[in-house]
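Thread: "does anyone have the structure for this chain?"

Original post by V.I.:
We have the sequence but no experimental structure in hand. Need at least a predicted one for the grant figures.
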Amino acid sequence: MNATQLLANFDRLAEAPDAVLRLRRFILDLAVRGKLVEQDARDEPAECLLEQCELERIKAVETGLVRKEKKLPPIFDDVPYPLPVGWVWTRLGSTGRIFNGDSVSEGEKAELSKVADGHPFIATKDVGYGWQQLNYENGLRVPVGASALKVLRANSVLICAEGGSAGKKTGLTDRDICFGNKLFANEPWNGINASYLLALYQSSFFYTEFSSRMTGIIGGISRSEFVLLPVPIPPAEEQIRIVAKVYELMALCDQLETAQQERERRRDRLAAASLQRLNQPAADTTPEVQREHAHFHLHHLPRLTTHPEHIKALRQTVLNLAVRGRLVSQDSNDVPVAKALAKVIKQFDVSEPFAIPASWSWVRVGDAAQTRLGKMLDKAKNKGTPRRYLRNVNVRWFDFDLSDVFEMRFENSELTEFALKRGDVLICEGGEPGRVAVWDERENDIYFQKAIHRVRFPIGVNPHYFANALREAADSGRLATYFTGVGIKHFTGRGLASFSVPLPPLAEQHRIVAKVDELMALCDQLEAQLTTTQTDSRRLLEAVLEAALAPA
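Reply from O.Q.:
Generated one for you, tokens below.
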């Protein structure tokens, strides 16, 4: 596929991540390689143009506009890539008067902010990324003719020369300005089109050359290195045609970007509306209709989940439905919780944050489980045999990371008290309070530290259901109401004991856990598929762009 065919069929590749941004760069790369517009044999060669530029530079030296400098070395055989007939490689310093701006203190800026009229003062923050204009409305003005600050004329090019945005931020002036010392200006000689220079500055080729000469910890390029950068110069007439085509195609990119954004907004609205209908059904919506809504959403998942945020929202919705009794159907044969656990749980009089099925009950953790914090780490007082123990960092959401497990001394009399067994629910007290996982005995003879709560349910509670309910409360913000602390939050033992859980009959808990696992596995597949699709789209686009840029 050549460049013309790619531009004509770009909408087919527009699903790749940052596709329009890549298209913009591709257009500029075509422009500086002589592949964007056709060459015209009647154009005066760029060599003649550069001879005129040199005469203009000599005159500027004689008049004192620029200082006399050592002549720039020519470019002969070591060229970055071949150019069309009529083009020529030269040094950037041969294209115009290049200089940096002035350092202005905060106090001086405060004075400039009081000036009612004058030249705008442009700092690095006023220069944008990509094909953008400069920000002239920052309130800083330099009095005309009454300041020692250097003035840059209209139709000149700026580029950031220092810091994280070096070589990335560029701009074209449409009026006379003053500017900061971290910017390099290029007042082009006659015949060098400023808009062509802007396109050149924003091309991948130029940034590669620019960044290869950057030095320092914060990153920057000196003027002496900047003027040596190799640049391709077309005939003056072709520069004009290139600029016209670039502006035309950038306008097309704007349209593509707008269309993409609108399409994504429609997808987001559809996904949000579908999830909203699941999470907050109308008061007269029957369970059967709710399940139909869920079936519709799950059936159209591939179309509704085009971003990681969509999948994250879907996971939250699955848990939201699970703890409200809307993920699986109730079974009239299930014994209601209040009756089944009457001998174990004495307190069911708990305020209801939201409605639950009749066979369910709200239960406080402290009324249904045994809870305790782990052992305090105190190297000076701890005695006994060194044994492996879990810290806060080892407990992930629904999983454990045992790649970095420490040891603490435990006495034999403490082993039973701090041991872990299958089905123990481990909850982070701090760090990310409420982060939870269910111990699966993947390792024997392991214990836990005081930064972790251990919750054991003697009967009637599936620990995996409880972990899902805790995650739903964390996602919805309800769990945070049980935390203490202003800056650093903690989920204390008192907060955990008072935390209320919507508890279904045990058989339904098992059904819910199985369904949640099934849907979370589906989310994992969608996430992997989305990543693969994006990667494949990116690789395809890069391969097509590379082929279109390759020499004929």
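V.I.: this helps a lot. The longest helix spans residues 236-279.
O.Q.: and The CA atoms of residues 114 and 131 lie 31 Å apart.
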